[in-house]
Amino acid sequence: MMCLLSSRLSLAGLLLVAGITGCNSSPAQGGDVPAVRTGISEAGNAELQRAVSEALGGVPVTLSETAFTDSSLLVIERNPPRSLDQPHLGGREMSQPVRFRLSLGDGHCWLQRLPGGDRRQLAAVNCVPEESAR
């Protein structure tokens, strides 16, 4: 009986700690929310392209000027170099694609590589919460 009571108290304590931790997470504190771009500009496109390239280790990328206008998520699939002389030996590329999320927080647009990569502030990009844009 004592063991059952002890395990119930432990479970209640664990749930309490999880609840408190959840209240301190950034969404509960009014932190970042998924966002989409508005007012597409040449400077914003260049900054976004530069930020994605830097997050990929300096790999040159070409993004559509409408990237992040319909969704807060950008998925970039890996494209191994190949030619007719040397086709990709594996056939299909099976590695995970690279994902980025655009968010709005502290009045600024932020780009983050998922999962859990560094956030980069985008000064020349205008964005609004994704939910309000629909």
State the low-pLDDT regions, or none: 2-30
Quick one: biggest sheet?
A: 6 strands, antiparallel
Q: First CA to last CA: what distance?
A: 55 Å
**How much helicity do the residues have?**
25-40%
H/E element sequence: HEHEEEEE
Describe the fold and architecture:
This protein has helices at residues 2-23, 42-55; strands at 33-38, 73-76, 98-105, 108-114, 119-122, 126-129. It contains two helices and six strands; from the N terminus they run αβαβββββ. A hairpin with a 2-residue loop joins strand 3 (98-105) and strand 4. It is of the alpha+beta class and 134 residues long. Strands 1, 2, 3, 4, 5 and 6 form a six-stranded antiparallel sheet that branches. The termini are far apart. The protein is elongated. Mean pLDDT is 77; it is low at 2-30. Helices cover 27% and strands 25% of the residues.
